[in-house]
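Suppose a colleague, Dr. K., hands you the sequence of a protein chain of 256 amino acids and asks what its three-dimensional shape might be. Before reaching for any lab equipment, you can write down a predicted structure in token form. Begin with the sequence itself:
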Amino acid sequence: MIIMKKLLLFLVIVLSSTPLFSQQSVAPVTKENLNEDRNFKIPLIGESAPAFTAESTTGTINFPSDYAGKWKILFSHPQDFTPVCSTEILELAYLQDEFDKLGVKLFVVSADKLQTHFEWKNELEKVTLNNREPVKINFPLIDDKDIVISKQYGMIHPATNSTKSVRGVFIIDPNDIIQAIYFYPMKVGRSTDELLRIVSALQLTAKERVLTPANWKKGNDVLVPYHPKDDENIAATSKDQYYDTAWFMWFKKINP
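The predicted structure, expressed as tokens, is then:
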């Protein structure tokens, strides 16, 4: 009889505690997260760039429709006045002429309101970085205080509305197709030189039937996706522009 009482007491304790542990392991359900689609998918290479209309430091942006026929880089930030992001924007500003030469339009999305963007921009334009004179920021800083754009571009984790993952770069071609994607952690600054390099590579490979090898830089030799010795479309006098390092790796001289 005593044993039966102990067993019943044990079962009561176990059954009564089970809901408690279940509730602790499940996020609370609210009206907001029931109604909201939490599948913030990252648009992939080869897909159309998601469209949006937003206010910016240069006026209203209709992206990407207002810039059809242009190469575009969408460069995102989680918050204004953060130190790493501040250096990145300044480096982009110092390279504005180089991006202009490539026909590239720059767009910065930051998860803050427009007035804060203006304040951040004004302060950045007073900064001397790496012994260089202060620089004007001519590209737009786009208002994404409601993180609508960040969600469209898959930069919000499905489990939270935190903007910590809003550290993406999307390179978009003149047909508004995504050609390259980068994501970076909060503590690591992005390479603006790499952006120039990859845009140069993308433009070259879009124009000609070539590939770029590892660490390629503008002016370096390129790879070709064919065997030049067997290609009847290549004139015999031009075949000396090609060389191989293995039977499966043929290069073309940029400056023969």
